Amino acid sequence: MYVADGEPHVGRVCTRKDHRGRGLSGRLMAEVSRLWGDQSLHLNAQAYLERWYESFGYVRTGPNFDDAGIDHVPMTRLPSSLDTCSRCLRC
What we know:
two-stranded antiparallel sheet
């Protein structure tokens, strides 16, 4: 997490290769929502993960863009999305 222009942003979310498939990133995102969920949260998702972030209440806020040769999409989770995360209870 970092704050830019007074708004909280999720930085890079990644899991070490030998620890993938255990739900760790999902648990991390659920904890971010729990701790910062009373505020709008912003992130730049790799485009192929857009649906995954949507499951945490994030919505696309603009067109795709290139970051270091990788297709990304800007996304935001509004405070009202706190109750719409479909993963929080499973993490």
